[in-house]
């Protein structure tokens, strides 16, 4: 697993979240999102909370103990973004992130509509 900085899982407004223990500069790699290959059934249903498309035809299930990136929560005003290269998922800082700040990225419209539309608790929506 790629860690570009020291991270820790802590209580968050959404349950548990991933927080940085050090300053992360804009554009920096934060962490790699890991998982096992999704099953055909998972791909067909496409509704699991930790599923991530890595290409048009492949998906991973990030609900594995070694994947602490699964604790990066959704935000409608995120400080990170996901980039996919060679079917690998990497999370990068969209702006400079200060020590103690929770990491977040936009999960996308499809995930939002399936799981968060009525209950989004990101800092942007809970104002």
Q: Keyphrases for this structure?
A:
127 residues, mainly beta, Beta-clip-like, three-stranded antiparallel sheet, 2 helices, globular
Classified by CATH, the class is Mainly Beta
Tally of DSSP helical segments: 2
Percent of residues in helices: 10-25%
| Computed structural class | mainly beta
What does this structure look like?
A hairpin with a 2-residue loop joins strand 1 (7-12) and strand 2. This protein has helices at 40-45, 109-116, and strands at 7-12, 15-20, 29-33, 36-37, 51-53, 59-61, 73-74, 80-85, 88-93, 104-105. It has two helices and ten strands, in the order E-E-E-E-H-E-E-E-E-E-E-H. It has one domain (7-116): SET domain (Beta-clip-like). The strands form four sheets. It has a three-stranded antiparallel β-sheet, with no helix packed on it. The protein has a three-stranded antiparallel β-sheet with strand order 4-6-5, with no helix packed on it. It is mainly beta and 127 residues long. The N and C termini lie far apart (35 Å).
Write the topology of this structure.
Layout: E1 7-12, E2 15-20, E3 29-33, E4 36-37, H1 40-45, E5 51-53, E6 59-61, E7 73-74, E8 80-85, E9 88-93, E10 104-105, H2 109-116
Parallel strand pairs: 7-10
Antiparallel strand pairs: 1-2, 3-9, 4-6, 5-6, 8-9
TL;DR of this structure?
11% of the residues lie in helices and 32% in strands. With 127 residues, the chain is mainly beta. The chain has one domain: SET domain (Beta-clip-like).
């Amino acid at each position: 697993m790629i860690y570009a900085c020291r991270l820790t899982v802590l209580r968050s407004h959404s349950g548990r979240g991933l927080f940085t223990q050090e300053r992360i500069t804009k554009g920096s790699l934060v962490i790699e999102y890991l998982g096992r290959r999704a099953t055909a059934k998972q791909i067909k249903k496409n509704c699991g909370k930790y599923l991530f498309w890595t290409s048009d035809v492949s998906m991973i299930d990030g609900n594995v103990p070694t994947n602490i990136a699964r604790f990066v929560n959704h935000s409608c005003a995120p400080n990170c973004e996901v980039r996919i290269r060679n079917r690998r998922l990497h999370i990068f800082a969209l702006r400079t992130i200060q020590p103690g700040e929770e990491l977040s990225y936009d999960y996308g419209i499809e995930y939002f509509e399936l799981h968060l539309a009525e209950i989004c608790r990101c800092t942007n929506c809970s104002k």
